[in-house]
């Protein structure tokens, strides 16, 4: 969802309402295409339509839950805490103006691995990226749900693409008649191909990120992240606990209870050069 050579912070966000309308039109066209292909309505066709509708409803639920949910916003200081009208907070901010761990916009000390998002106007824990399609950040609380959305969207594209290919009718005499009979599925094929490839690529990328307990932001902007300045370049994933534990924590752990600390020099001593080496070796070692 990021254009090459464009810094993440400088991306211009599209209007979220337009994106949501586009999302619904695209998915309703997909459902309509499957119904059109199965218009004979044999028992098998009805099963295909029901499966497609269930998958679409699942995507819609995940999409909207992500769009309006909490990605892991860092709590703001309570107004009641500042009995001096915020004077101490302002003085504190002046004092920490140069401290990269302080967010001057939120007025808080940022936890490690968090980042301020200018679109959401909040700091987000274990920041991954701001998703223009969702109009929301992907962070510590919603990264798992985002991965399931990518899997669901990829499956929906593959299924609809398969139905379109199977549903194309042959044996028609003229090309005009053939096109008239197959216009809907043929028109959908390039659209499904592009979107399916896009969703699958993101799915593969995020699976790699999850397997190494890194984030897209850490992966792409490592040289600009303050706490990576103390991490040796050969240490690819300082928070990785091995493939199995990374996956277990990501898929079964409670993201609201996860807290990260800067890795110590001792913890980084045994880390391998590449993410893959580190994951596999830690996993085998238990
Ligand atoms: Zn902030
Ligand atoms: Zn954001």
TrEMBL record:
Keywords: Acyltransferase, Lipoprotein, Membrane, Palmitate, Transferase, Transmembrane, Transmembrane helix. It holds the Pfam family DHHC. Residues 98-221 form the Palmitoyltransferase DHHC domain. It is found in: Endomembrane system. It catalyses: L-cysteinyl-[protein] + hexadecanoyl-CoA = S-hexadecanoyl-L-cysteinyl-[protein] + CoA. The chain crosses the membrane at residues 21-39, 146-169, 189-212. It is a multi-pass membrane protein. Its main location: membrane. Its EC number is 2.3.1.225. Belongs to the DHHC palmitoyltransferase family. The DHHC domain is required for palmitoyltransferase activity. This is Palmitoyltransferase.
């Amino acid at each position: 969802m990021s254009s090459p050579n464009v810094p993440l912070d400088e991306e211009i966000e599209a209007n979220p309402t337009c994106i949501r309308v586009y999302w619904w039109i695209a998915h309703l066209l997909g459902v309509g295409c499957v119904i059109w292909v199965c218009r004979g309505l044999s028992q098998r066709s009805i099963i295909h339509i029901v499966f497609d509708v269930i998958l679409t409803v699942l995507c819609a639920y995940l999409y909207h839950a992500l769009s309006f949910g909490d990605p892991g916003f860092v709590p703001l200081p309570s107004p009641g805490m500042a009995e001096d009208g915020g004077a101490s907070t302002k003085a504190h901010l002046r004092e920490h103006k140069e401290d990269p761990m302080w967010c001057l916009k939120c007025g808080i000390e940022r936890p490690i691995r968090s980042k301020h998002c200018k679109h959401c106007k909040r700091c987000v824990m274990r920041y991954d990226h701001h998703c223009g399609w969702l109009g929301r950040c992907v962070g510590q609380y919603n990264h798992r749900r985002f991965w399931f959305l990518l899997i669901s969207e990829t499956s929906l594209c593959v299924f609809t693409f398969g139905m379109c290919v199977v549903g194309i009718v042959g044996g028609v005499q003229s090309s005009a008649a053939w096109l008239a009979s197959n216009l809907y599925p043929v028109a959908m094929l390039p659209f499904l191909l592009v979107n399916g490839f896009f969703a699958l690529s993101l799915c593969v990328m995020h699976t790699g990120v999850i397997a190494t307990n890194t984030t897209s932001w850490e992966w792409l902007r490592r040289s600009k992240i303050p706490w990576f300045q103390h991490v040796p370049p050969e240490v690819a994933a300082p928070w990785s606990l091995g493939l199995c534990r990374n996956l277990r924590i990501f898929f079964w752990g409670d993201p609201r209870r996860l807290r990260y600390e800067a890795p110590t020099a001792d913890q980084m001593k045994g880390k391998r050069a590449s993410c893959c080496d580190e994951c596999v070796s830690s996993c085998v070692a238990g």
